Amino acid sequence: MKSVIKITENIVEYTEIGVIKYVKNRKARNYTLRINQKGEIRVTIPRFGSQKQAEAFLFSREQWIKSKLLSIAQKNAHILLLKEGMEITVRDKRFLLSSGNNGNNLESAFWGILLKEAKRLLPARVEEISERCRLPYQGLKIKKMKSRWGSCTPGNSINLNSWLVLVPDHLMDYVILHELAHTVYKDHSPRFWAFLDKLCDGNAKSFRKELRMHQISYRVETG
C-alpha cells in the first residue's frame, strides 16, 4: 500500500484501501483495527505506540481489510438510499419521493407509496394464484414490515409486505405461494418445502436464494 494523501496528522489516505484514521488511546494495550458498516477504518494506537508502528500493523492486515471492504460494499449495494426528490419506479408507475409540507418525512412518504401500490396490485394477484392452486385463504392484509416478506395466521389469513411491489414478478409470486402453502402446512417441515417446491415447478430453492438479493434494506439521506 502506498500513502498518497496525508489529510491531517492522524488521517491518511492509501491507494488500495482509502482513508485511515489513527487514534491514540492511552488505555489501549495493543494496536487494534476497526471497520464499521460504512467502510470507515480506524486504527487504535496504544499509549507507548507510534503511528509508524500502527501503519506497519495496518499493512500486515491488508488482505483482511480488502476482503472486509468488499463484503461491506456488496452488502451496501442492496441498500436503497432514499433522497428528497428521487424517482421511485413501482412496476408501471413512477413517483417522486418528497417529504411534502404536511409533516411527513421521507421514510413515511416512501412506505406510503409502497402501501398504495401494493394495495392496488397484490389483492388480484393473490386471488388469481389462490384459485389456480386451489389454496383458499380467509383474508389479506398488506402492511409495512421491516424484516419479513409475509406471514400466514392460524386462521389462514395472509399478511404481505408492501415492499413486494419492488421485487420481480416471479419473486412476488413465490412469496405469495409460500404464504398460501402455509394454509396447508403451518411449519417449515420437509413436507412444507416439498409442497412449495411443487407449487413453484421445482424452483423454490432458487427463488428463495434469489429473494435474499432483494433484502428489505434502506436508509434515508440526511444533510
Number of helices: 6
Let me know the CATH homologous superfamily of the largest domain: Metalloproteases ("zincins"), catalytic domain
How many beta-strand elements? 12
Structural class: alpha/beta
Report the principal-axis shape: elongated
Instruction: Please give the alpha-carbon distance between the first and last residues.
Output: 33 Å
List the uncertain runs.
none
Note the main sheet: 5 strands, mixed
Helix content: 25-40%
Provide the spatial order of strands within the biggest beta sheet: 1-2-3-5-4
CATH structural class of the largest domain: Alpha Beta
CATH topology of the largest domain: Zincin-like
The averaged pLDDT comes out at: 89
Order of helices and strands: EEEEEHHEEEHEEEHHHE
| Total of domains | 2
Q: What is the CATH architecture term of the largest domain?
A: 2-Layer Sandwich
Nearest-angstrom radius of gyration? 24 Å
Range of strand content: 15-25%
Keywords for this entry:
single chain; 223 residues; alpha/beta; Zincin-like; 3-stranded mixed β-sheet; 12 strands; 24% strand; elongated
Describe this structure in words.
The chain has 223 residues and is an alpha/beta fold. The chain folds into 2 domains: 3-76, no CATH class; 121-214, Metalloproteases ("zincins"), catalytic domain (Zincin-like). It has helices at residues 51-60, 62-76, 106-133, 169-181, 190-199, 204-211, and strands spanning 3-8, 11-14, 18-24, 32-35, 41-45, 80-82, 87-90, 93-96, 139-143, 150-152, 157-161, 218-220. The strands form 4 sheets. It has a 5-stranded mixed sheet with strand order 1-2-3-5-4, with helices on one face. A hairpin with a 3-residue loop joins strand 2 (11-14) and strand 3. Helix 3 packs across helix 4.
